[in-house]
Design a protein that fits this description.
Blueprint lengths: L2 H9 L2 H5 L6 E4 L2 E4 L11 E4 L4 E4 L5 E2 L1 H9 L3 H11 L12 H29 L4 H9 L4 H6 L3 E3 L5 H9 L4 H6 L3 E6 L2 E6 L4 E7 L5 E8 L12 E3 L15 H11 L1 E5 L2 H9 L5 E3 L7 H10 L3 E4 L5 H16 L4 E3 L8 H18 L4 H10 L7 H16 L4 H18 L6 H43 L57 H17 L11 H10 L4 H17 L1 H10 L8 H12 L8 H7 L2 H11 L9 H32 L6 H14 L8
Parallel strand pairs: 12-13, 12-14, 14-15
Antiparallel strand pairs: 1-2, 2-3, 3-4, 4-5, 6-9, 7-8, 9-10, 10-11
Helix pairs in contact: 3-4, 11-14, 15-16, 16-17, 16-18, 17-18, 18-25, 20-26, 21-22, 21-23, 21-26, 23-25, 24-25, 26-27
Length: 719
């Protein structure tokens, strides 16, 4: 029997430990209850016995002692839990037999990296107070940061130098440059002269980022004006993801706010450290902040540990803050958290608002903050109720979808009744209030069904992606995944049985007039960060023109026989063959980094006939030359649909090589498709004018003639 484990069990108060993660309520006779942290529930079924040192949930049946709880809630191995609790209760670890050599090495590395960040935080603070920090102190004074605030948040200054931090870590403390890079403080660069390191934070105000226990795990940096080595175009930077820091699991100032959250039974969430610092300085010590990311499930779980009565979302009054607030709604509702939205003027963030209106003004906006559901409903409706009948219908549909996302049936009924009242007043039909309310209830029910279907589809996509990742890892042990087999001397389509090269459902098939999927970039999707704006506009513009041409023909249903024969002749392009050609080229770019640049040049942004294909190609072009594809990272960066397609392509049939002649043939197929489409556009324009008895200009005839020459097609003679 391990004496250390027994000593921990004897000293550890299981209620005290669990209470750090879950809001316990007394249940009599040395027992406590709470909503289980391991599954979502509204009626407490999680029981803790202090005398027995044991917990059990009667909802999901999970149970155990203090070691089991910490292991589950923090996803830690037993050895790390033992170490964590021993440190908490001042017990020396005399037996480490339960820790593997790999675990021991990982623990030692983490401890050393925490030492790196700790001494650097102190050094940054020293630089701030010294001669080099004059400009940093001026900036802090301009932001009205008092001395006690600067000290409480450990604000410092990173000197205007490429190697000051590097020399401090390596020469004074003997840390290696590699350790500095792992801690996020140094940047590694390799060129013809070999591997070099330089400071990540240069001429910046620095903000230590802590974990829940108050250990420094990273830094934020705010650019200052001037300087010789700084990068002012990047106003704020944070530590990169690494062994210590993960922005999706970290809330800034959590360890400082925790006591105040319990005292006030409320929590304020902002978007950045300056906003959090300003609110703390104004007396709102229950404030935390996200760090360069929107709210995540991990953030919500962290908030759910303390179960505050109210969570106030206080984002900027601009569009980005608004969108972040709207996205967070269903996530918070799933945890049963009561969320309100602090509405700031569009020109303000929490920092500027506090400086202009003070603590009293902020208390007022907190008191006026609407519930998140109400805020989302108001945003979904906009000014629609006061507009046309169509605008009113759209407003009602948007509000119904928001109400359908609520899990509380009582809240649903209240919002449905309120919405019906607003609609009846706006349409002057108060005498039909009951009918309107019943109609809205049906809309909400329909929206609920759609949401459930979407959730099932999303779950299926996640499972499929996970399966693809597993299969890719299995195939990654030295196996080269190449293109589907194809005879370089043939011009027929690739193997029809290869589903990875088939068109998606809803895409045009052979002989259809419309050559593109109807959705163009910008309509329901956003430009990805790696896609140059010019290429995005080229893709969007080409698709927009293709769709506009489909509306230019006009005329009556009974078009003459010549028009019918002309259109039938022009529209005989094999759409599925073009899709297959594009996917074959994408697979070549995935497997052969040396081909990315040349294929990216030969197949321009406007030539990709599928938005997914364009998205994948643009991402691959953005990778450094000769860098192999990292599938997990690729899946994270791409949209779910594009990621699924990449997985299908990488797992499709293989061939030993990809000859230039095969590549040329695929590109010619795409070029021929575009030539047919240009011919189709011109022909639709001419036929439309003929049917409307309008004059056809010589330029239009010349364009059509040129298009027919490009396709090497002749107009069929009249029968």
């Amino acid at each position: 029997m391990d004496p250390v484990i027994e000593e921990i069990r004897r000293r550890a108060d299981i209620v005290e430990v669990i209470e750090e993660y879950v809001a316990l309520i007394p249940a009599g006779a040395g027992r406590w209850k709470a909503c289980c942290p391991f599954h979502n529930e509204k009626t407490p079924s999680f029981n803790v016995s202090r005398d027995k040192g044991f917990f059990k949930c009667f909802g999901c049946s999970v149970s155990g002692d203090v070691f089991k709880f910490v292991s589950l809630v923090e996803n830690l191995p037993f050895g790390e839990v033992k170490r964590k609790l021993a440190e908490r209760y001042g017990i020396a670890l005399r037996d480490r037999a339960d820790i593997t050599p790999e675990q021991s090495q990982a623990y030692a590395e983490r401890d050393r990296l925490l030492r790196v960040t700790s001494v650097t935080a102190s050094w940054f603070a020293e630089q701030f107070a010294g001669n080099a920090g004059l400009q940093a102190r001026d900036y802090a004074r301009a932001r009205q940061l008092k001395r006690e605030t600067l000290q409480a948040f450990g604000i410092g200054y990173a000197p205007d130098s490429w190697d000051a931090c590097t020399h401090f870590l390596t020469r004074k403390f003997g840390f290696s440059p590699e350790e500095g890079a792992k801690a996020g403080l140094l940047v590694e660069k390799e060129d013809e002269r070999g591997k070099r390191y330089y400071d990540r934070y240069r001429h910046r105000l620095t903000f230590p980022i802590w974990d829940e226990r108050g250990a420094v795990i990273g830094f934020g940096g705010r650019a200052l004006d001037g300087g010789e080595t700084g990068t002012p175009e990047a106003k704020y930077i944070n530590s990169p993801e690494g062994p210590l820091f993960s922005k999706s699991r970290t809330l800034y100032a959590w360890h400082l706010a925790r006591p105040e959250i319990s005292r006030r039974d409320a929590l304020i969430v902002t978007e950045g450290y300056m906003d959090a610092i300003a609110l703390h300085a104004a007396g709102f010590g229950n404030t935390v902040a996200t760090l360069g990311t929107s709210l995540t499930q991990d953030h919500a779980r962290l908030l759910n540990r303390v179960k505050p009565k109210t969570v106030f979302l206080c984002f900027d009054g601009d569009g980005a803050g608004l969108k972040a607030t709207l996205r967070a709604g269903p996530m918070f509702d799933s945890f049963g958290l009561a969320v309100r939205v602090v509405k700031l003027p569009p020109s303000h963030d929490p920092d500027t608002f506090i400086r202009e209106f003070g603590a009293a003004g902020f208390e007022q906006v907190l008191a006026q903050a609407p519930a998140l559901a109400q805020y989302r409903i108001e945003h979904a409706m906009g000014e629609g109720l006061a507009g046309s009948r169509m605008a009113r219908e759209d407003a009602i549909a948007g509000a119904a979808r928001v109400i359908a996302e609520l899990s509380d049936e009582g809240a649903r009924s209240v919002y449905i009744s309120n919405l019906a009242q607003q609609v009846a007043q706006a349409s002057g039909a108060l005498d039909r209030l009951a009918t309107i309310e019943e109609s809205i209830r049906k809309r909400v029910s329909t929206a609920e069904g759609e949401l459930k279907r979407d959730a099932r589809n999303q779950q299926r996509r996640v499972q499929e992606r996970a399966a693809v990742e597993v299969r890719l890892r299995e195939k990654s042990q030295g196996e080269v995944i190449a293109l589907p087999q194809r005879d370089a001397n043939r011009h027929e389509n690739a193997d029809e049985s290869d589903s990875s090269l088939q068109p998606e459902p809803g895409e045009a098939s052979a002989g259809e007039v419309l050559p593109f999927a109807p959705r163009a970039p910008g309509a329901g999707s956003a430009r990805r960060a790696w896609i140059p704006e010019a290429e995005w506009k080229a893709q969007a513009g080409w698709k927009a023109r293709s769709q506009e041409a489909d509306h230019n023909q006009g005329g009556e249903a009974g078009a003459d026989a010549l028009a019918a024969r002309l259109l039938a002749n022009v529209a005989t392009g094999d759409e599925s063959g073009v899709v297959k050609a594009e996917r074959a080229l994408l697979l070549a770019m995935l497997n052969a980094p040396s081909l990315r640049a040349s294929l990216g040049e030969r197949v321009s942004a406007a030539m990709w006939t599928r938005e997914m294909h364009f998205e994948i190609a643009s991402y691959l072009k953005s990778l450094p030359e000769d860098e192999p594809v990292d599938p997990p990272r690729l899946f994270e960066e791409l949209s779910p649909e594009a990621g699924a397609l990449v997985g299908d392509l990488l797992l499709s049939k293989t061939m030993e090589s990809m000859e230039p002649k095969v590549i040329d043939d695929y590109i010619k197929r795409i070029e021929a498709h575009h030539a047919r489409h240009r011919e189709h556009q011109n022909l639709q324009l001419i036929l439309g004018k003929m049917q409307r008895a309008e004059a056809i200009t010589p330029e239009e005839l010349a364009q059509f003639a040129q298009a027919t020459r490009e396709t090497k097609r002749r107009v069929p003679p009249e029968a």
